[in-house]
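ARCHIVE CARD
SHELF: 3
SLOT: left
DATA:
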Amino acid sequence: MTLKEKCAILEDRVKRLQEIGLALSTEDDINVIFELIMEEAKNITNADGRTLYMISDDGKTMKFEIMATDSMNFAQGGTTGVEIKIPPMQLFDEEGNPNHSSIVAYSANTGKTVNIKDAYKEEGFDFTGAKNFDKTSGYRTTSVLSVPLKNHENDIVGVIQLINAIDSKTGKTITFSDDMQQQVESLASQGAVALTNKRLVAELKNLFESFIKLIATAIDKKSPYTGGHCERVPEIAMMLADAVEKTDSGKYKDFSMTEDERYELFIAAWLHDCGKVA
């Protein structure tokens, strides 16, 4: 490969990372963010199997968010609408010791990337689950890459697991190269920061709504004549908005609201009496 070709490949990779970074920062739907992360991981490695785990709030388990295997035409979680019914993975045993037998649990507990060339030859990790799956399905788990998602504070929020990198020219399973690993680690970092930011925004929004409702409830409690008024107005306002949107004749037949506009109306309805506090 010539120097010019290497520079072109590097330029393309940087461009893709910029594009995925922008997409992750502007997307509001968590499931879509999950899909963006895993789709880009596939683009980087051409991995046949992909699983995304997210760590629970208590830090004791990991929930399956996305599972996909292209060669088996299998996909669950994310935006598929198909629920993953596999129980969460335990990160600790009954005595509170970190689970290091599973590579994804190991990555979650240590923050280290694990790159396996052949699951059937690797020692030190338990691949019983993968081998049992292979036995019943006819699949062959070979190369495995487990990458933790670390946010800007170096907190681990989840793990990406990729299975069987495929050579695009021969169609054969290959190992995950060091270059692939570094790119996925960079992607995982971007994804973790985006997910953390979205969660923080959601928490701030919940706090804001709770504060507004607290003020409105205090106003309702103050007057026995209008008790419950501040709580009823938002409900009625949204009912009116729904009714107007369903109108198919007259001057409001083309009226519609985006999700952001509906949220603005909802907040405005809660705030309508808050000026009385002054």
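SLOT: right
DATA:
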Amino acid sequence: METIKDIARICGVGVSTVSRAINNHPDINPETKEMIMQVIKEHNYIPNNSARNLKRSESKAIAVLVKGITNPFFNDMIGIIEQETQRKKYSFILQRVEENENELDVAIQLVKEKKLKGIIFLGGIITHSSENFAQLDVPFVLSTSDIVNEEDNKAPLWSSVSVDDFAESYKMTDYLCKAGHRKIAIIAATKGDESIGKLRLEGYLKALGDNNIRPDKSIILHMEENKDSYSMETGYRLMKKLLKERDKFTAVYAIADSLAVGACRAITETGAVIPRDCSVAGFDGLEIGTYYNPSLTTIRQPVEEIAKVTIDLLFNIIRKNGQHKKVVLPGELLVRESTQEI
């Protein structure tokens, strides 16, 4: 059975683009939409992820709310979650949440409109209190992120699956420090980020401190609110800004592989050679990092395991076969060609 990920791969576009075509979203090129719909027709794909086609009478539906859908890291996860959901004979709704939207408000509205059995929050800013989440009367799982407020975690009313973003970011920064780098720039999330971006920045800062390195604000570059996303274009553009401070760093750590690949492009356009002139590291373990030249040093997140544990937790709660759990999976430091000791 074809999945939304398969359609995206065949068309050479992202999952989010296929979703926009199916849901008749205005933010898509008409020619691209026509091509996608033709491929869907040829492959007899049934777009179960189309919320608009799901009747209210449908009683077996799972919604996945994705914030940051332009991040290619989510593509594989969405594909796996869709496959597992359909294998369990449930319908699959993919709901995009814009950067300036509150994902909890979107979820509450979706529950009102559709008869859902469960919700998966993928990405996003998870800073809501227990009282806010209590407004949802269906089981849900936070995937790739967790509640920031530790007090709320003492008696969880939901499940979460993620890596320890603080610890894994610390691991990457500490590796760069131990490799001899004393001046490490970072391409970070927005200044107001309260989710994984904040945790990864804090891990970076803690590792610098533990290695007796004073952070330099001039080489800590944040994405812009309501403008930037976890994309290669963003990494490219922000790296262009960082290059104005070129003498102040010997390594760049981007908090996502997509950002890192864009940063590499900006660096090589200046005639510099990676890693001889500047080491570059990322986070996520995207497939593109393996085949990029030079191959990208990164923290690999166990994508398939995160997706499958997420689905298992959700269905255990739906079927009342399990309790809520906070699952933290280990990341893996992959040292490749884009970094070197100095």
